[in-house]
Amino acid sequence: MTILLTGGAGFIGSNLVRQALERTDDLVVVFDKLTYAGSLENLEEVKEHPRYRFVQGDIANSADVQSVFAEHQPTAVLNLAAESHVDRSIDGPGAFVETNIVGTFELLDAARAHVAKLRGTDQEAADSFRFLHVSTDEVFGSLGPEGAFSETTAYDPSSPYSASKAAADHLVRAYGRTYGMNTVVTNCSNNYGPFQFPEKLIPLMILNASEGKDLPIYGDGTNIRDWLHVEDHCSGILQVLKRGDSGESYNIGGNSERSNLQVVDALCAALEQELPNNPALGKRGYERYEQLVTFVKDRPGHDQRYAIDASKIERDLDWVPSHNFEEGLRQTVRWYLDHRDWCASVTDDTSRERIGTKA
Prior knowledge:
By secondary structure, the chain is of the alpha/beta class. 43% of the residues lie in helices and 16% in strands. The protein has helices at 11-23, 62-72, 86-91, 94-119, 123-128, 160-179, 201-210, 230-243, 260-274, 279-283, 311-317, 325-338, 340-346, and strands spanning 2-6, 27-32, 52-56, 76-79, 130-136, 183-188, 190-192, 215-218, 224-229, 249-252, 257-259, 293-296. The strands form 3 sheets. The protein has a 7-stranded parallel β-sheet with strand order 3-2-1-4-5-6-10, sandwiched between helices. Helix 9 packs across helix 12. It is globular.
């Protein structure tokens, strides 16, 4: 196969590139705009791989998309390109509409034309072409204290980010039904692991704590997320690409519900083991990382709880997560402490500032 992997220089995308090159014989063509959250440094270790290609381009730019389809003639598209930070979507929703909705449309329309052309020359290739769209559990809105999101849960997005992803999901399904394309949608829970841009909760807290800075938690810290190691997510995506049924959706979850406060407490405990006797704490007059915790004004429209029911992918595609949350979290802490040069190179002075307060 020739996989066109959009957003491949980002967090999940770069982990998926490495896993696809390790576990398949496919050619992987990364198509990425290289925004603030995407960096070629994330792909440094595969840049000489014989089955890796990189093309810089914008999925919302029709000419860019048509060009990469014409040059590489993909047999599958894995669409991971997205603006993904909820707080940024509150301050500037336009970029989310442009990339997540318009960009998905441009990819789908190019794929439709590509498949139509194949039908005139190679029906088997047309039938086997697959468009796999990677989405989020945030499209489902907020849960109460019980239950979990299934593939049939009604959409109820709360933020401009989740609304833009919901719209993209609907476009993918509509193109599958209207044009007879082989489309699949995955909805995942919160990812964590190496190469995540340090605006997100886990890397932000690790870096702040290592520098003796405050650990800001929104509201009262009781908001709950299901946490999924990025390597487990990537293995799930590859399994859906290989074995998922056309027109279906698959939830990919980590079976690891934790409140934000529980996550930060676990991070502090891991840091006590991985970075003890940190002089940055002493400068604040503190002895333990948990003393850095502070509560700040909640995010507007902050969903209370997400939980994924991943029984469908477990049952139908024989996929289960392999990472225990506590050990995966500790590995993640260790990775960020060992890669502070990477953190410095991909961020600037504003990357860890509080945003998303304009509502």
